[in-house]
Structure formats: C-alpha cells, structure tokens
Amino acid sequence: MSKRTVQFKIYRYDPDRDEKPYMQDISVDLEPSDKKLLDALVRLKVKDDSTSFRRSCREGVCGSDAMNINGKNGLACLTDVDSLPQPIVLRPLPGLPVIRDLIVDMTQFFKQYNSIKPYLVNDNPPPERERLQSPEEREELNGLYECILCACCSTSCPSFWWNPDKFVGPAGLLAAYRFIADTRDEATNERLDNLEDPYRLFRCHTIMNCVDVCPKSLNPTRAIGKIKDMMVRRAV
Amino acid sequence: MVKRIVVGAHYGLRDWIGQRVTAIVMALYSVYFGICALMLPEMSYEAWSGMFAGGFMRFFSFLFFMSLFYHAWVGVRDIFMDYIQPVGIRLTLHVIVMFLLIGYAGWAAQILWRL
C-alpha cells in the first residue's frame, strides 16, 4: 500500500518563545491504521513534540480536542483525515485566549456555563427511590443532555466573540434549557429571570453557526427558541 | 471603582417580541401598499395624494413608519451593543439614534397629514 502523507498548516504560538503567532507548514506520513485527524496529529506530535494540543478520550466523548479545522470548528477525533482538503489548516478555537498552539483558555466559557447553575435545584426532601419522570417528560431532555462542552458552538458564534463576558453562548443556553425543561427542577422561574437580559440570552440572533458545527449534532438554536417561547408564555 | 462585569438588566423579551410583531406589520403594509400603488389609474401627483387621502391608508402608513422606527431602534441598539464597547460612547449613540427616530416619526406624521 502506498504511503499516505498529509500536509498541515498549523497555528503555532508559544508565548515564552515566540513574539507573535505564526503558521507552520509540516507534513506527516500516516500508517494505514490512521483514520482520524487526531491520529495524524498524534503522528505529528511524534515528529515534532513541541506541537501542543489537548486530547483525551479520542472518541468524541470528552470534548478536549476541539479546534478550528480548515476554517470550521470540530473535534479532531471525529473528523476523517481523508475527507479534508490539504493542506489541513489547523487553528485554535476562535475568540478564546491562546495558551499555546492549539490550546485555548476556556475559563470564560466555563464561567458562562456555571452561571446558568447546571444542576438540579429541588429543595423537597428526596423520595425513597428516584424522582420519577414520565417517558414524555424524559423525552424532552433528549438532544440537550448529550452536550460534551467542547466549546465548538460558542466559539463559532459572533455574539460570543463580541461579548464572551456577558452572553451565555449556545453551549450555556443549551444547558440552561436542559434544566428549565427538566420537570424535577423547581427553579424554572429563577432560571428564566436569570436569562431575561439583553446580553445573556437576547444576543442570540439565530444565525445557527452553533448548529452547523456541533460534533454531537445538537441544536442549541432550537433550545434558545424554546427558552424565548417559555418567556413569552410566562409574560403574555 | 472596581470594574466588575454586571449583567441582569431584565429586559429584552419585549423588544424581541416587538421586533417580530413590527416585522409582520411592515410585511403586511408592503403588500397592501404595493397593491394600492399598482391599482392607481395613472401615475400623477393627484392620484398619488388621493391614495393617501383615506383615513385607513393614513393610519396604516403611520403604523408602518412607527413599526419601522421601533424595529430599527432594536436593531441599531443591538449593533451598538456588539461593536461599541465603551459605555459612554454607546450611551451617547443610543441617545442620538433615539432622538433621530422620534424626529423621523414626527416628520412622517407631518408628511402623511399634509398630503
């Protein structure tokens, strides 16, 4: 079998050594078993171990290896390397501060996630067994709880780029609706109050970049629409 | 003063609904206006001002302009919120745009009832 070679153009920046970021051209020979972009990156790391990126589970569950691949955010471990036009241009997730190479500082992203209280609020004493839901009530949580917080969506959202400190962002709002929709949660009103704000929720102008990039095929825009829907039903 | 990020103004829903309702009003008016203009017997000043002579057309036209200005206010404010970060400049721009739109509303009324 002929050798496969991939050409990379990678964003490099080490604040301790580089004055400013630059794009590095580098090529890597792949083995037949290398299927995903992450496999190629691991090969590249062997060749030049100063290249830095996050990775962990390598199967689209942990959300560590989110990056901007040929201009579109995605997970390296879920992207077929053969499907990508070359040179493969890799950049860190846009809009977040770069720590080094493809590694970004996700503090702001998680701050927004924490601000929506991503846990059940229920002050009633827990029943003997679990708090029950009907199959229909449980159904509503599908497409919401699967989010792995990779930040692909929020960092592809212009509203999040301009106001990352004030706009919750698609990932945070998807999680917000996950708890608003949960019948076991009792803080629905407080949650809606918390989001009724020109910045926190209403920066979303439904351009749906988030839906376009989500590696888990989730739909934050629909969840945001449902939050707005609930606010309207509460107010009218 | 310590600079802390403050959010939680508790508005936005009214403007969001308002923008959608005004869009519907403008869409309906555009169709109505198009039909009325096409049904004019001739393109002359008399026919044109005659079209606006009826009370309904005047009211609907004024409603259209009010919708347009409210719609524009929400949209322009959104643009300022995204792109103009210094609060002082943003507030100044908000005030200028608000007065401008109120002025336009008065002007629209004056034109409509003068025709």
Automatic annotation (TrEMBL), chain A:
Record keywords, A-Z: 2Fe-2S, 3Fe-4S, 4Fe-4S, Electron transport, Iron, Iron-sulfur, Metal-binding, Oxidoreductase, Transport, Tricarboxylic acid cycle
Catalytic activity: a quinone + succinate = fumarate + a quinol
Pathway: Carbohydrate metabolism; tricarboxylic acid cycle; fumarate from succinate (bacterial route): step 1/1
Keyword 4Fe-4S part of the UniProt annotation: yes
Cofactor binding mode and count: Binds 1 [2Fe-2S] cluster. Binds 1 [4Fe-4S] cluster.
A Gene Ontology molecular function term of the record: succinate dehydrogenase (quinone) activity
4Fe-4S ferredoxin-type domain span: 137-167
PROSITE patterns given in the database record: 2FE2S_FER_2, 4FE4S_FER_1, 4FE4S_FER_2
Domain 2Fe-2S ferredoxin-type, chain residue ranges per copy: 6-96
Needed co-factor(s): [2Fe-2S] cluster; [4Fe-4S] cluster; [3Fe-4S] cluster
Gene Ontology biological-process annotations: respiratory electron transport chain; tricarboxylic acid cycle
EC number: 1.3.5.1
Taxonomic superkingdom: Bacteria
SUPFAM superfamilies: 2Fe-2S ferredoxin-like, alpha-helical ferredoxin
InterPro entries given in the database record: 2Fe-2S_ferredoxin-like_sf, 2Fe-2S_ferredoxin-type, 4Fe4S_Fe-S-bd, 4Fe4S_Fe_S_CS, Beta-grasp_dom_sf, Helical_ferredxn, SDH/FRD_Iron-Sulfur, Succ_DH/fum_Rdtase_Fe-S
Similarity annotation: Belongs to the succinate dehydrogenase/fumarate reductase iron-sulfur protein family.
NCBIfam families (UniProt xref): dhsB, PRK05950.1
Protein name: Succinate dehydrogenase iron-sulfur subunit
TrEMBL record, chain B:
Chief place of localization: membrane
Binding site for heme: 71
Lineage, broadest ranks: Bacteria, Pseudomonadati, Pseudomonadota, Betaproteobacteria, Rhodocyclales
Gene Ontology BP term (one): tricarboxylic acid cycle
Family matches, as InterPro entries: SQR/QFR_C/D (IPR034804), Succ_DH_anchor (IPR014312), SuccDH_FuR_B_TM-su (IPR000701)
Name of the molecule in the record: Succinate dehydrogenase hydrophobic membrane anchor subunit
Signal peptide: none
Subcellular location: Cell inner membrane
Swiss-Prot/TrEMBL cofactor(s): heme
PANTHER family xref list: SUCCINATE DEHYDROGENASE HYDROPHOBIC MEMBRANE ANCHOR SUBUNIT
